[in-house]
């Protein structure tokens, strides 16, 4: 399943809360309007845009959003270019994901494929392919250009083309999302054309019954209600105010439906989040040391496991240091992830000095020629000064081996803590040099708006978001996808 689809499905607690709230706000004082009937689709093979009564064009669009025509036509072929495959294949298959091999597709390899990676033994140091040469600083694309991007065109189009062997070439989440976003074929969740032009008979007889939409005039009272709604989704007062104020610009006094408000808010949220959507940067210097911090239970261990698996699957050599020596369960959990991914996990006896383990792990990573060293840490905020000293010591000792380390300090935050996440950013920024955020557990929380507040307030890069416990439930952060998922925007 595409990550965006999962994100949308799993952010339902946040989006349905917003949805219900918006319905109530618009219905309260809104007026039901009849909109132009939606033509029934009779001939989906004909490309085109459905007709709309000119005087009610926007209303018709809204009605379609609210009640999409069920038999939407397939994408016109020129909307889904797949230059490397014959036209027939694309049409016959009807599945863009398979016929247009892409980096995004590769993120969707089933976990089973990843589990098939060999045991956690030190793998034979295979020579790195040319395309994995160290990247220049700020070059964000660690993804080797796999053969699947440019598949060999078949001399003779096969009637049943074999699916591409994508499992082995999954990209890590550090893949730059800008590239993905610029490629329309990757947006399989957002077909560009909602419906086809009806056939002739359809145009004559097949018009659906007139539909209605409720719209309410945007005024101060409604703005206040919208603000409260966003605050209830954990967006925080300041951010909610900003979103609503910007959204209101140019729309005061206009009649808006729920769908239109959602789209306006989604655009505003995406605009706020755009500057912080930055994949984890990769540096030419290896091993790149990534220190992972966060309170207990925020998802550090799981995030490290997912990162290690994704990087390993992308051909990177990874070493993990199980630096939370206070919790045996955390060490065991990391070992399970390490075994799955074929990544060595360095451990130390319970209660021993995590800095000493980090020092050894640094040595091991250097000796192994590892690309990445991921260091887990304890998250005992109960004793802040102890934790601060512990983190400072880890940094001191690894700098004995590389004075530029750690190259990233990732703060892992649990979305279910809502506004508390803001305090955690403050505290961890005080005690460590936080360079970026990962937000976990966006699935199953009605507090997803907190990520908008974080972006608005701190401006720290958001590298990735977690929406479940499986390997591929962590992906780079895409502001537009997130905003749409949070607001429950339906793009037809
Ligand atoms: N639903 C959901 N659960 C998650 C996600 N990420 C982590 N978890 C779960 O959250 C729990 C805590 O995750 P850990 O990775 O152990 O958190 P931690 O920060 O390492 O915790 P400590 O080891 O106590 O410091 C585990 O049960 C994970 O499976 C996520 O994105 N979604």
TrEMBL record:
Membrane topology: Peripheral membrane protein
InterPro entries hit by this protein: AAA+_ATPase (IPR003593), P-loop_NTPase (IPR027417), Signal_recog_particl_SRP54_hlx (IPR013822), SR_rcpt_FtsY (IPR004390), SRP/SRP_N (IPR036225), SRP54_GTPase_dom (IPR000897), SRP54_N_sf (IPR042101)
Low complexity biased stretches: 50-60, 108-120
Reactions mediated catalytically: GTP + H2O = GDP + phosphate + H(+)
Group of enzyme by EC: hydrolase
Chain ranges of the SRP54-type proteins GTP-binding domain: 287-488
Coiled coil feature spans: none
SUPFAM superfamilies assigned to the protein according to its UniProt record, in alphabetical order: Domain of the SRP/SRP receptor G-proteins (SSF47364), P-loop containing nucleoside triphosphate hydrolases (SSF52540)
Positions contributing to GTP binding: 294-301, 376-380, 440-443
GO molecular function, one term: GTP binding
Compartments reported by the entry: Cell inner membrane; Cell membrane; Cytoplasm
Signal peptide: none
Region (Disordered): 29-199
The enzyme's E.C. designation: 3.6.5.4
Ligase listed as a keyword: no
Single GO cellular component term: cytoplasm
One GO BP annotation of this record: SRP-dependent cotranslational protein targeting to membrane
Domain AAA+ ATPase: from-to ranges: 286-432
Pfam families (UniProt xref): SRP54, SRP54_N
Acidic residues: compositionally biased ranges: 90-99, 153-167
Quaternary assembly: Part of the signal recognition particle protein translocation system, which is composed of SRP and FtsY. SRP is a ribonucleoprotein composed of Ffh and a 4.5S RNA molecule.
Family per record: Belongs to the GTP-binding SRP family. FtsY subfamily.
Described function: Involved in targeting and insertion of nascent membrane proteins into the cytoplasmic membrane. Acts as a receptor for the complex formed by the signal recognition particle (SRP) and the ribosome-nascent chain (RNC). Interaction with SRP-RNC leads to the transfer of the RNC complex to the Sec translocase for insertion into the membrane, the hydrolysis of GTP by both Ffh and FtsY, and the dissociation of the SRP-FtsY complex into the individual components.
Name the record gives this protein: Signal recognition particle receptor FtsY
